[in-house]
Write a structure and sequence with these properties.
Length: about 350
Amino acid sequence: MIPTIYFDTGYVYILDQNKLPGQVEYDKMADHYELAQAIKQLKVRGAPLIGVTAAFGLALAVKNYSGSPDKLKSYFEEAQQLLASTRPTAVNLFWAIKRMKTVFAAEQQLDIKSLGERLLQEAQTMCMEDMNTNISIGNQGQVLLPPEARILTICNAGALATCGHGTALGVIRSAHQQNKIKQVWACETRPVLQGARLTVWELIQDQIPVTLITDSMAAYLMKKNYVDAVIVGADRIAANGDTANKIGTYSLAVLAGYHSIPFYVAAPLSTIDMNTATGQDIPIEERNQEEVRQIRGQYITVPEVKVYNPAFDVTPAELITGIITEGGIISPPYVEGLKSLEGI
């Protein structure tokens, strides 16, 4: 699994996922401003990785600070606000910022240099924890899959969306290690093609059998009995189990329900937002219209056409068979199940 983010000699290096699969290239980030732009531009993406990237950004903010000590707190708060504004749907972003804020507040007795090092240490710890969390999610989830499993997924919830192993693809990766995967169907995931560009590339690296389909082919595959389970990631899970994920996920859940196919969500506990009651309260990011008008900078439609481009949709809890976390597999009713696992 190729590293998605790391720190070395004063800089944070990120794998530029906009250049995959054609180029494997790392960008050197000097400060939190550059990391905020990288999140906005989807150079880094995936809820868990966005959170860790923001943590590194806050560490760099303090490490680079050269002003007076009495203004450090307000500077740190400005850095928090900038990073929080990048992607509103992924709750892991706000979870990571809160965790770094807690460390900042607890270590006020340190000098600025030592405080920066302490924050960097916390960001690196979060990165390692994410890897271990995803391995646990994979091991928990793979027991749900039958032998010779044929799995359908959308977007990229793999090692590229995390610090390693992945969530939805983590389950697939762990099942593959048990020789349980016959076929992965990867939806291309319009408009940014994370499935076609990233999921396919990642699975091929691990020699996991994968076939690419357009998003509109999923119903046909289910009708032909080619799918044993659908596994997706999540950007935010509300207290009642409603789940926000990449646009098109809701459609797959409806189709899976109609065809009596299990529909699983795989996500770390940091994706669960007990302060958001239902999916109706989840903020949905709307992205640039050009993402739909163009592919790789080339117009595929009339340039002036109006576009609606929500990046996520919300799958109602009643369409979800189970939520796979590092703390265990949650089954309906989700209100009780999520409360029992919160904070593990």
